[in-house]
Amino acid sequence: MLRQQTPGHCLVYSMTSKPLNIYLDYAAATPLDKTVAAAMEPYLTHHFYNPSATYDAARQVQKYLNIARSHVAHWLGSRPSEVVFTAGGTEANNLAIHGIMRQFPKSNMLISSIEHESVRVPASRYDAREVNVQPDGRLDLNDLRQKIDDKTVLISIMYANNEIGTVQPIREVAKIIKEVRKLRGLSGLPLYFHSDACQAANYLDLHADRLGVDLLSLNGGKIYGPKQTGVLYVKAGIKLLPLIDGGGQERGLRSGTENVAGIIGLATALTLVQTDRREEGERLRKLQQQFLASLTEALPTAIVNGSIKYRLPNNLHFTLPGTDNERLLIQLDEAGIQAAAGSACSASDQTPSHVLRAIGLSDTDAQSSLRLTMGRHTTLAQLEQVILSLQKLTAKS
Amino acid sequence: MLRQQTPGHCLVYSMTSKPLNIYLDYAAATPLDKTVAAAMEPYLTHHFYNPSATYDAARQVQKYLNIARSHVAHWLGSRPSEVVFTAGGTEANNLAIHGIMRQFPKSNMLISSIEHESVRVPASRYDAREVNVQPDGRLDLNDLRQKIDDKTVLISIMYANNEIGTVQPIREVAKIIKEVRKLRGLSGLPLYFHSDACQAANYLDLHADRLGVDLLSLNGGKIYGPKQTGVLYVKAGIKLLPLIDGGGQERGLRSGTENVAGIIGLATALTLVQTDRREEGERLRKLQQQFLASLTEALPTAIVNGSIKYRLPNNLHFTLPGTDNERLLIQLDEAGIQAAAGSACSASDQTPSHVLRAIGLSDTDAQSSLRLTMGRHTTLAQLEQVILSLQKLTAKS
């Protein structure tokens, strides 16, 4: 029996269906995982209690919070008490930087020249010096060594870059820092190592001791968890000054009634991505290789930016000389492809990306560059469609 | 036909049902409104895009954010650009205080002696002086006048107290501030008025100009909205320094990818409570009167704390001389009644409430006091049950 299709049916269908969407901006935002949403739901409804209240139902909420904290700690290889929940990755980066730097007024700090704005801007409030990266986006370790002086108390180097996906030699940075600490001895200033791991958490090891970090930032909104949830790992014994004071939640480091559902969601999301990170990383690595091979075949003038070897498996960043990325993004959007030119934060202003400048791109080349970031729902068929669209659009222009 | 009830059915029923819960801690946390949850849902799922991205789907999210902003502005009688979304009420209070005070290093600020910790603690980083309250919890306006000096740049007086529910004479404070500004003229320091309206938003007018405030804090988690969402109203022309820097969201005052679902939820929740505030306020006012009448009849030694006249309609705060509130709260919880001794934030530490001290209670009386805060699901039958329980429990002890 055939189901009758009335015109009304068709109309409804065409209204609710969207044009084919190929989402390639996972570095800007990830869709909420369904398991995460299901884990959050009871804490938005039944378990709405304030975890600091004293009755049993509230104590249970506190217990679930602590379970979430221990899950996050598991992936960091840390103690639960070293996990501070924040309202987002930006807040975590700010807490790390201000939390240390406000204690040492005459000190300085080092950041890489390609950090995210949430590190660059708070760092700019202090004597912050930039460590160069090489043309492939990797940190220049010699430049790092030379720029550390007696007054350096904080080094903040991102784990993986949000624009070009370059993975930094975190363990090597940690080694250098360890050497400096030894030389300084007990009489010198402390030297702390912070890493912004917001883009790395989907694919890389987060074990704090293996990495050698003292402070590490995570962002729920980049790992298929809820937006404006985050974590700052704070190694035991490190004193931080809080940004937000009050009721003393999160061991005094982040006051305010806890975002219970958000924390449960973040912990669930982290567990899911860290459990699958190798498998999903390999899947995307293959897609990445296939895309880049097809791209350079279809568009021989295309230049891939940033290290191929030391790169997040979901990142595709390239220059199409002679094109205008603003125009191209609009045309791609019309073709159902959602992509970016750089970080979403700086999408609205017109200044060329500091990351692309740091790796030596001219402003013209920067304005001819695209960032496609893949994720769970990205398929080879989608990428083939993107290549076709790029071919068509650049042939036209 | 009768539906057969197997033992299994009964078992399941008894497992999923809870003992009768009478929740009387709405000042600590409110359950999420179902309409709010429904409004948030699409922004947790379909509309997950980063509002700063450039493709159409992301611009739509940005558009919905702006609609939410205009809804909040409506209730504040403000322009949308005067609404800053924060991650909670505590953050909003911190942003107001640090945002102003960091600009004026040699100035001072005034707070009432009964402010919430999220005002008290950030204020304590500066030269902050306390203005007394009268024994009924209302601000002593003469003391306020006397304590304002040439170096006072910020006055932070809560709209309604979180423990005893006292509503402060905000409009009168605003008048005094206006007079001081006139006297200072253009050559003097500015003088700003901040009010923490987190507990007031369910029942009172929030129109900023009518109140005469420059800065006003709201908390989503106290108005049947999501936790760790908040608003700081910032009157046009007032310069604030941000707490959290980075991508420049919220006009540079709160960086980090916006909590889109949270903001939509907060705006929806605010609209719901402000639309119903008079009706719901009257309903609770009646319950409040009935409870307090029954209480003093059933337990003649009971003393009600704080002004009866200038009081949030949902607040019941009283001393039962000779009782121990810690023990009583446990017993009430066992009887299915969830209540508090003070603010949830300070529930865990053992120091007597600064609010109760400020209105002249002895530490012994403070430790014999209970806070019951009513809300949407509170009924007369529940309150009668509470009176019966209190009678039984205090007779025993």
Question: Could you describe the 3D structure shown?
Answer:
The structure is a homodimer of 397-residue chains. With 397 residues, chain A is α/β, with parallel strands linked by helices. The first copy, chain A, has 2 domains: 13-32 and 277-396, Aspartate Aminotransferase, domain 1, CATH 3.90.1150; 34-275, Aspartate Aminotransferase, domain 2, CATH 3.40.640.10. The first copy, chain A, contains 14 helices and 12 strands. Chain A has helices at 7-16, 34-44, 56-76, 89-101, 117-123, 141-147, 170-184, 208-211, 260-275, 277-298, 325-334, 354-358, 363-366, 380-396, and strands at residues 22-23, 83-86, 108-112, 128-131, 152-156, 192-196, 215-219, 230-234, 303-304, 315-319, 337-338, 369-373. In chain A, the strands form 3 sheets. A 7-stranded mixed β-sheet of chain A has the order 2-8-7-6-5-3-4, sandwiched between helices. In chain A, helix 3 packs parallel to helix 9 (260-275) and helix 10 packs parallel to helix 14 (380-396). The interface between A and B is large, with 70 and 68 residues.
